[in-house]
Amino acid sequence: MKQLDPKVTADLQNWLNSSDKDVMKGAELVLSVTRNRALYNSFLRRPDKFMAKVEYELRKHLNIRLHNMTVADVARLEKEVMPRVAETVANPPMVITTDDEFPEGHIATGKRADHDQLPPEIQDLWDSNGPRHAQITLLFNELKAMNDLMPCDRFEKLHLLDVTEAKYRANLAKYDAYQLGQPSVQVDKQVASNDEPIEAEPVDPELDKKVGAARKSLSKWRKSFKDAADDEARAKALAKIQEYVDVIKGLGAGLAEDTVAELSALGIQF
Questions:
Q1: What one-character DSSP code corresponds to residue 37?
Q2: What SS3 state is found at 45?
Q3: What is the DSSP letter of 240?
Q4: Same domain membership, residue 81 and residue 45
Q5: Is 164 exposed, middle or buried (0-12, 13-18, 19+ CB in 10 A)?
Q6: What Å distances lie between residue 102 and 38, 93, 94, 112, 115, CA to CA?
């Protein structure tokens, strides 16, 4: 594996963490990690217009470097992850269906016959995997449609897909291995609206209000990032996401494991 220059990684972090960003310095950093002279020349012609694009490119490449990966490593990761996930996508979790042939409903192979007798947290390992599989399928198909992009442009979704699918497999393994009567594993109880752990909420009512407001804003900007039509809008959304993550962490509250994984893949710092 090619060794990454830690100074370059530090330079990217320092620029992104700066409160007074020099767009031309940022453009030079983009050139140093992408070798894209045409993009650099565009920055030179209209530096003020391209501030958001500079920030987006640097955050993207910093995220890859913080995972101790080069662009070539990302390409290799993709070759490992996509075939593995293809198998998962092709074998969705059991669903209960009702139709003319099976009016009482029938169950596909996978769900345990004693599911209703299991502790709630063990049942949740299976139940939560339904929407998780849907997310995996969506990410998998999105990545298949992004073959014309560079590996670094696919890394965010690839990393999220890798983490999400690994969680899916781990849940199935725990679910299948559990034996009635044994102490059950503990799983995070989450708030359905924003997928954050209940136990992370502060006790103080005033803090509770502040954290709740920050969570609501974080959810809004996460959606804005997903719906963004261009790099400038994505960069603005990322900046807001970082802002509200900092607020939530500063107030002593936590974030769900899946949320941290997703936002880390976007380059958000914790």
A1: H
A2: helix
A3: H
A4: no
A5: buried
A6: 62, 19, 15, 19, 20
Single out the residue in 26, 45, 66 at which a domain terminates: 66
Supply 186's token pair: 């503990």
Is residue 122 packed enough to be buried (19+ CB in 10 Å), middle (13-18) or exposed (0-12)?
Answer: buried
Reading the block at residue 38, the tokens are 């045409």
Q: Which of 31-40, 63-72, 89-98, 211-220 has the lowest mean pLDDT?
A: 89-98
pLDDT tens readout for residues 201-239? 334 566 677 788 888 889 988 888 888 887 778 888 888
- DSSP-based three-state secondary structure for 96: strand
- Cα–chain-centroid distance for residue 208? 25
Structural domain count of the chain: 3
Contact predicate 249/259, CB 8 Å = no
Residue 156 CA to residue 241 CA, distance in Å, equals 15
Q: Domain range for residue 229?
A: 198-265
Q: Give this prediction's pTM.
A: 0.54
User: For the chain, what is the mean pLDDT?
Assistant: 78
Spatial distance between the Cα atoms of 76 and 35, rounded to a whole number of angstroms:
21
Ranges of H-type helices in the chain: 6-17, 23-34, 37-45, 51-66, 71-90, 120-127, 129-144, 151-177, 205-227, 231-250, 257-265
Query: Would you say residue 265 has pLDDT above 60?
Result: yes
Query: Residue 250 to residues 18, 195, 210, 227, 236: CA-CA distances in angstroms?
Result: 19, 19, 11, 27, 21
In a domain, 246, yes or no: yes
Calculate mean pLDDT across residues 36-65.
83
pLDDT-derived band of residue 20, with 50, 70 and 90 as boundaries? Answer: confident
Tell me, yes or no, whether 62 lies in a domain: yes
